[in-house]
């Protein structure tokens, strides 16, 4: 019996990335588990988005490499990478008056032939993505006229239309209210469960990361401090180490995943001065 496991499709090996002279990720190593949902968590400025952009081939490494199927990703043709890895960046700019359907259709670019012919398969993928994200009713409206939450769902639809086996999403729940935030997270969970899509997403909410991810990568100051299943990573010691927040964790009554409960009561902050109390 052969117990050898295939090499992971996406990994970083000695990856160093920076902006000008400022090094953000110094010699990082990371393996993305195939067929799982990975959540990258950590305080603002710790390098989460930089890591995601490097994995997506948007940022070139200063040293080391990101490997896709064993090949340095920056040496592969752009269309080859785009058929395997889809990216939802944190900030997006929409050309004026571009409709929802037109933006979602752009996700099909890597699959279009040499003459850019739109096929029935392209149409089906775009329709499926709009249906999955609940933006069908906006299909003919300009994206720049939608609310922030609606626009975010359209961008998610565009990435889904790309139909890649690996999805990288930088804060995919930004601007979304609670209902739509949960919809997107459940959609990603379903894509993983049903289609086996590998998902890597940057999240700020530790409870959501614990509930929807199989694997958590905790970062601080450009380094991976801990990684593994939520129950092993989201612990009081680690949360205080990463975020400086004393807490306890309790099991989620629905899923059993860790819930973070901060220990500092609201009234324990700095005392108001007499003048501030009087003004209040």
From TrEMBL:
Pfam families: ABC_tran (PF00005)
Top-level taxonomic group: Bacteria
Topology of this chain in the membrane: Peripheral membrane protein
Primary location recorded for the protein, binned into one broad class: membrane
Localization: Cell membrane
Alphabetically ordered keywords of this record: ATP-binding, Cell membrane, Ion transport, Iron, Iron transport, Membrane, Nucleotide-binding, Transport
InterPro entries: AAA+_ATPase (IPR003593), ABC_transporter-like_ATP-bd (IPR003439), ABC_transporter-like_CS (IPR017871), P-loop_NTPase (IPR027417), Siderophore_ABC-ATPase (IPR051535)
GO molecular function, one term: ATP binding
The UniProt record lists the keyword NADP: no
Domain ABC transporter: 10-246
GO biological process: iron ion transport
GO-annotated cellular components: plasma membrane
Signal sequence bounds: none
Name of the protein described by the UniProt record: Iron complex transport system ATP-binding protein
């Amino acid at each position: 019996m052969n117990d050898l496991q295939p090499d992971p499709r996406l990994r970083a090996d000695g990856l160093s990335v920076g902006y000008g002279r400022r090094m953000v990720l110094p010699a990082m190593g990371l393996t993305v588990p195939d067929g799982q949902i990975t959540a990258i968590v950590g305080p603002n400025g710790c390098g989460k988005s930089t890591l995601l952009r490097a994995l997506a081939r948007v940022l070139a490494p200063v040293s080391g490499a990101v490997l896709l199927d064993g090949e340095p990703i920056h040496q592969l043709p752009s269309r080859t990478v785009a058929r395997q890895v889809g990216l939802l960046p944190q900030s997006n700019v929409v050309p004026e008056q571009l409709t929802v359907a037109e933006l979602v259709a752009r996700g099909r670019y890597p699959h279009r032939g040499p003459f850019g012919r739109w096929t029935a398969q392209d149409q089906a993928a775009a329709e499926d993505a709009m249906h999955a994200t609940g933006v069908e009713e906006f299909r003919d409206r300009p994206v720049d006229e939608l609310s922030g939450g609606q626009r975010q769902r359209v961008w998610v639809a565009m990435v889904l239309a790309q139909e890649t086996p690996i999805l990288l999403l930088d804060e995919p729940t930004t601007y979304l209210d609670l209902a739509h935030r949960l919809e997107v997270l459940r959609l990603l969970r379903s894509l993983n469960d049903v289609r086996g899509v590998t998902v890597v997403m940057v999240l700020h909410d530790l409870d959501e990361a614990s509930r929807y991810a199989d694997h958590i990568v905790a970062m601080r100051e450009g380094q991976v401090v801990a990684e593994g299943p939520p129950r092993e990573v989201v612990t009081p010691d680690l949360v205080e180490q990463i975020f400086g927040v004393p807490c306890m964790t309790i099991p989620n009554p629905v899923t059993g995943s860790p819930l973070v409960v901060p220990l500092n009561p609201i009234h324990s902050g700095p005392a108001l001065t007499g003048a501030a109390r009087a003004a209040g």
